[in-house]
Structure formats: C-alpha cells, structure tokens
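Long-time lurker, first post. I've been practising inverse folding by hand and with some scripts of my own, and I keep getting stuck on stretches where the structure tokens seem ambiguous. Below is the full token string for one chain I'm working on. Before anyone asks, I'm not after the true native sequence, just a reasonable design that respects the backbone. If someone could post their per-position residues I'd love to compare against what I wrote down in my notebook.
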C-alpha cells in the first residue's frame, strides 16, 4: 500500500475528529474546579493519579486553603496529609505550595494565562499548562498525556512519542477551535475504548480510519510461525537433554 500523503492524512484526521465528536459529544475535563487556581492545583495533583481520586481530595483542600496566599503559607505537613491519597504527596505538596507562592508573589494572586508564564511555576510542565489554558482560560490547547500518545500512535497520526512533537503534529491537522474539545474526546476514548491492553477495536467508532487492527492482524501470522517453530524445536531439545 502506498504511504499516506499529507492531504490524505489531513482528511483522515478530520474524519476522526468528527467521529469522536459524534461518539463523545459531552466529553469534558474530568477534574472538578471553580477557578484557574483550583484547576492548576488539581492538574498538578493528577500526575500518576486518577482524576476521580483527585476530585475526592481537592474539596477539603480548597475549603481549608481557598487562595494562593493561604496555600503558600500553609504548614507543609498539613498539605501533605490532605493530598496523600493522590500519591507522590511529598513532591506534589512542595510543587503546589511553590506554585501558590509564585502566583501570590509574582502574579498578584492570579494564575497567569500564558504558556510562557505558566511554565515558570514549580510542578508545571507543558501538559499541565495546556490543561489550564484550554479549560480555565478558553485558549485553544492540546494537552498530550498518556492517552493522547497511545491513541495517536495507534491511529498513525503521529510519528513521535515526544509530547511536544505530537502537539505540533496535531496542530497541523486540526483547526485551533477544535483543539481543546478534541483532546477531551481523545482522552475519553483512551479511557473507555482504546485502552492500553486489549483495545476494543470491534466496537470502536474510529475503526474504519485506524490502521492498528489491520497491522495487528498482519503481525499475527509471524508470531504464530515463531511459536510453531518453538513447539517443533522443543522435542529435539528435550531429546538432547534426555
Ligand atoms: S480501532 Fe482499536 S486501536 Fe484504533 S483507535 Fe479504535 S480501539 Fe484504538
């Protein structure tokens, strides 16, 4: 089969985006928040943790420390205990308190709304900044997490596993107005259908535009040949050791 041209890939990306919209019209950010500050803190806490678990701990955290100033001056040990269920709680406590301190002292108590400024905050990398920009400020953004990486690799819409490169490639295929909702839908799709182990390709709304099921099928005969070879070799090896 001849390689896909850029124009063909752009058309396929458009079909995929439309199929995702039809399948998951209500997909949203799964983190609970009432302000950019709450979303920033929740997103930092969501590293290596489910959004559900984060949503269980943040109401009490924000009730006790509702502003950047309050969180910046809180006893570190108390923050650690409150966020402990999210894992890596010592590093996360330092990160959220450090970010709160920077927001309180350098940004007048308001979360900055630019990628450049967000990246200066402790614990904030590009994915977190994109979540905040896209969901708290309405700035088109493509946060690339583990679901975005896996789904796009299987769809053949990226040639890289570097999140920054994936973000750049997707920007070529999709208009800015589509970025944030598209990312929500892909992440949701990665959670409910294109899961890491045993993706549900038979029920997938993207199956007609995804090369992965065919690639998996064509890989199967060679795997079968290898196991057949191993099976044939086993009696000979046993007889040598007998
Ligand atoms: S067809 Fe399978 S691999 Fe492709 S996106 Fe759907 S679930 Fe994922």
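-- Answer (accepted) --
I ran through it position by position. Result:
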């Amino acid at each position: 089969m001849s390689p896909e041209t850029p124009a063909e890939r752009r058309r396929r990306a458009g079909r995929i985006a439309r199929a995702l919209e039809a399948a998951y019209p209500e997909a949203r950010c799964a983190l609970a928040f009432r302000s950019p500050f709450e979303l920033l803190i929740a997103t930092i806490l969501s590293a290596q943790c489910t959004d559900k678990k984060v949503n269980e701990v943040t109401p009490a955290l924000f009730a006790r420390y509702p502003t950047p100033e309050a969180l910046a001056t809180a006893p570190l040990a108390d923050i650690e205990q409150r966020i402990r269920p999210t894992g890596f709680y010592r590093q996360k406590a330092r990160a959220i308190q450090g970010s709160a301190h920077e927001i309180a002292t350098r940004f007048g108590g308001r979360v900055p709304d630019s990628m450049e400024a967000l990246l200066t905050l402790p614990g904030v990398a590009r994915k977190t900044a994109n979540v905040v920009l896209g969901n708290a400020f309405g700035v088109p953004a493509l946060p690339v997490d583990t679901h975005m990486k896996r789904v796009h690799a299987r769809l053949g819409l990226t040639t890289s596993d570097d999140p920054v490169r994936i973000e750049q490639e997707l920007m070529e295929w999709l208009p800015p107005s589509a970025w944030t909702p598209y990312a929500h839908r892909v992440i949701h799709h990665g959670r409910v259908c294109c899961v890491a182990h045993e993706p549900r390709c038979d029920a997938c709304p993207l199956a007609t535009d995804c090369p992965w099921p065919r690639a998996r099928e064509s890989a199967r005969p060679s795997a079968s040949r290898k196991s057949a070879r191993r099976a044939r070799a086993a009696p000979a090896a046993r007889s040598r050791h007998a």
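A couple of notes from the structure itself: The chain has twelve helices and no strands. Residues 212-241 form the longest helix (30 residues). Happy to go over any region you disagree with.
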